[in-house]
Specification:
The complex is a heterodimer of chains A (560) and B (178).
Chain A (H helix, E strand, L loop, with lengths): L26 H5 L4 H30 L9 H35 L8 H24 L23 H29 L12 H33 L12 H18 L2 H15 L6 H14 L15 H29 L8 H23 L2 H7 L3 H31 L5 H27 L15 H32 L37 H6 L5 H4 L6
Helix pairs in contact in A: 2-3, 2-4, 2-15, 3-4, 3-5, 3-13, 4-5, 5-6, 6-7, 6-8, 6-9, 8-10, 8-13, 9-10, 10-11, 11-13, 11-14, 13-14, 14-15
Chain B lengths: L1 H23 L2 H10 L2 H26 L3 H31 L8 H32 L10 H29 L1
Helix pairs in contact in B: 1-5, 1-6, 3-4, 3-6, 4-5, 5-6
The chains are: A mainly alpha (560), B mainly alpha (178).
């Protein structure tokens, strides 16, 4: 690399400022940063910003639905709001939050000083950033997209949605998608090439394992979405005929391509969260994770099966019994590896010395809520039930139980777990408990009743409904639960902002944790590691702290 | 890294090819396909593109042996072949557009131009990369060995050729077989 010596790279030399803007170079240090920690933090703030925006959108929707025959919103605005809510939450809250944690912690957990391609890393972030803002530019450009987050044909055609919203949907998601693919390439190379000495694949932290599997999933799934988005743009801008049935195109083709991406996407948003839980459960149960190999193996099984289940989103389109039965079987099958993981975590807790921190509370709540979401998911794999319930509020309830009760609970758990490392300060455990109960109660109030509404036949995505028996009351309960969640999220954001300055000093290792990121200072120095402690088991930092009771000695010290 | 990029690109082209095959099942599609496409002319241009994979392989092999002059020669030939292929594609597009076959005319036009257009775009990107590499070669960057640039670019260039093999078969050859 001798030729690089005379290129001056404007990089900071002092320690990075943790979560605050005031470094030695101020805001420009963040904008020009190629440091994985700063990029990770920017991903996370981006997710928080869009969480608030997407939350406000859906609160407006819930106000409209609070009572029957309401006219708070007109139908056009209603369509735009729920479309933007879904798109925002999936692509610009859950995804950037997951990539934020991965970008920050994958290098730290494997003992590396940065990602394999730091500039590509910055490129990925800015693609996501501008993708989000491009999507939101549609509001001032003449109207937001209004065909739902999965944007079915022919509703997505110019004839039915003539505002430029869907064009912004395509370009925004395309840009963000390119960023996601680039980030995933970066993760794979980083994980495969930059692990510290001694960290074989079988000793990698499970979070890193899940990111590795997940990145392959992204590389295989996102091209289908990108291709579909390009085709849709061609349809709308250049009058091509991909999805327009009147021109010989096929509306079903959009559904196939979208769900060929869309179902793996569901797992893309949950596998890293499984990784977070596989760190949180052992640390707060003070036991090694139960069945390390099974957690990894079931992760791989989920990733492979994820590509064989997409048609269960399309049972109602009339593809025939053979196709439906095949995909019903595969969809039932994918419940198995997910169930394996739930038992892994339960067994990790069993007999452990459990500390009920907020991170652990969210992890335990996840086990309950995600299982409910999983069970309603399995019910959809049964074709007749799907025919009865598809496009009702039952689907809405199911997907929120897995996206919130699964993905978001994991990300919040990760926030409480890792915030001390990123900021050097603790999040207040007492206020955190208030937040936990408000959020969990609000969440169940909102969505548990929607199962019933769906079973009673209330269709999703209608802007108002007649005053049928029970509907008004159940919707009111749902809306008040939503308000509770809104208050809880405001409390969380307030905590994040205040704790970063005034929280209790965290120290380097506040949780007595197991993995390498806790061996650094909080927040870590500009250069993560000067030396990395030896890695001889999956819990290297614990071995280091307790040299007389190491995992590798107990396992027989097989290679030393 | 390049292998991962190529892998994800392959999935992208798979989606486009699936869309093409999906539309090609309708009878009107095949009539247009047989009536407008000239398998012989495009076949010759395709052969030139496939040959460019061979010339790039020669460039790479000579680089490994430290023969910088031959490296430059084979790189230039590769670029030339790529440019000729793109010119052939442009000529074919002009002919089709004159016959009023375009993106908006039918599902054949839609899927044909999208699929071959995206492949052409990849050839163009490859040519830009090759031009940069060739400039670097003439500036003496590859006089010392050990760089992985040539072999990395090679993965991409061979990939673009292999994609064309599939596209050529699906778009030009398969209607004659069935």
């Amino acid at each position: 690399m001798s030729e690089l010596e005379h290129i001056r790279i404007p990089e900071p030399e002092k320690p990075l400022p943790g979560l605050s803007i005031t470094g030695d170079q101020g805001l420009i240090q963040w904008l020009s940063s190629v440091d994985h920690k700063q990029i990770g933090i920017m991903y996370l703030w981006l997710a928080v910003l869009f969480l608030l925006v997407g939350g406000i959108e859906i609160l407006l929707v819930r106000v409209q639905l609070a009572v029957p025959n309401n006219h708070f919103l007109n139908p056009e605005t209603f369509d735009q709001l729920f479309t933007m809510h879904g798109t925002t939450m999936i692509f610009f809250v859950l995804a950037p939050a997951i990539f934020g944690f991965s970008t920050y912690f994958v290098p730290l957990m494997i003992g590396a000083n940065d990602m394999a391609f730091p500039r590509l890393n910055a490129f990925s972030f800015w693609c996501t950033f501008f993708g989000g803002f491009l999507l939101y530019f549609s509001f001032v450009a003449g109207g937001a997209p209004d065909a739902g987050w999965f944007n079915y044909a022919p509703l997505n055609q110019y004839k039915y949605s003539s505002s430029p919203g869907i064009d912004y949907y395509c370009s925004g998601l395309l840009l963000a998608g390119i960023g996601t693919v680039a980030a995933s390439v970066n993760f794979i190379v980083t994980i495969l090439k930059l692990r510290t000495e001694g960290m074989g694949l079988k000793r990698m932290p499970l979070f890193v394992w899940m990111i590795l599997i997940n990145s392959f999933l992204v590389l295989a799934a996102f091209p289908a979405l990108n291709a579909a988005l390009v085709m849709l743009l061609l349809d709308r801008e250049l009058h091509a005929h991909f999805f327009n049935p009147t021109g010989g195109g096929s509306a079903l083709l959009w559904q196939h391509l979208f769900w060929l991406f869309g179902h793996p996407e569901v797992y893309i948003l949950i596998l890293p969260v499984f990784g977070i839980f596989s760190e949180v459960f052992p640390v707060f149960s003070r036991k090694p994770v139960f069945g390390y190999g099974f957690v990894v193996g079931s992760g791989i099984a989920i990733a492979l099966l994820a590509f064989g289940v997409w048609v269960h989103h399309m049972f109602a389109t009339g593809l025939g019994n053979t196709v439906n039965n095949f995909f019903a079987a595969s969809s039932l099958l994918i419940g198995v590896p997910t169930g394996v993981k739930i038992f892994n975590w339960l067994a990790t807790m069993y007999g452990g010395n459990i500390r009920f921190s907020v991170a652990m509370l969210f992890a335990i709540a996840f086990l309950v809520e995600f299982t409910i979401g999983g069970l309603s998911g399995v019910s959809f794999a049964i074709v007749p039930i799907d025919w009865q319930l598809t496009d009702t509020y039952y689907v809405v309830a199911h997907l929120h139980y897995v996206f919130i009760g699964g993905s978001l609970f994991g990300l919040i758990s990760g926030t409480f777990y890792w915030f001390p490392k990123m900021s050097g300060r603790m999040l207040d455990e007492k206020v955190g408990r208030w937040f936990f109960w408000l959020f969990v109660i609000g969440f169940n109030l909102t969505f548990l009743v929607q199962h019933a509404l769906g079973a009673m036949g209330m269709p999703r995505r209608v802007y108002t409904y007649p005053d049928l028996p029970g509907w008004g009351l159940l919707n009111l309960i749902s809306s008040s639960g939503g308000l509770l969640m809104g208050i809880a999220v405001c409390l969380l954001v307030y905590m994040l902002f205040t704790s970063r300055k005034t929280g209790k000093e965290a120290g380097n290792d506040p949780w007595d944790a197991n993995t390498l990121e806790w061996t650094t200072t909080s927040p870590p120095q500009l250069k993560n590691f000067n030396t990395v402690i030896p890695v001889k088991s999956t819990r290297p930092f614990r071995d280091f702290k307790r040299p007389d009771d190491t995992d590798w000695a107990r396992e027989g010290g097989n290679d030393e | 890294m390049m292998k991962l990029v190529v892998g994800t690109e392959a999935m992208f082209f798979l989606s486009l090819i699936v869309a093409f095959v999906y539309f090609s099942l309708s009878p009107a599609f095949k009539v247009l396909q047989l009536g407008t496409l000239d398998i012989k002319t495009t076949g010759i241009f395709s052969a030139l593109l496939f040959f460019s994979s061979f010339t790039f392989w020669r460039a790479d092999a000579n680089f490994r042996k430290g023969r910088t002059q031959r490296l430059k020669f084979w790189l230039l030939i590769t670029i030339l072949l790529g440019v000729v292929f793109l010119l052939g594609q442009a000529k074919e597009y002009m002919k089709l557009l004159n016959e009023h076959v375009n993106l908006a005319s039918s599902t054949f036009g839609t899927s044909f131009f999208t699929l071959t257009g995206f492949h052409g775009l990849h050839v163009l990107v490859g040519l830009i990369i090759l031009t940069i590499v060739t400039c670097l070669a003439f500036m003496g960057d590859f006089d010392v060995g050990g760089s992985s640039v040539i072999s990395t670019v090679g993965i991409y260039w061979h990939f673009v050729d292999i994609v064309w093999a599939f596209v050529f078969f699906v778009v030009y050859v398969s209607p004659h077989l069935m």
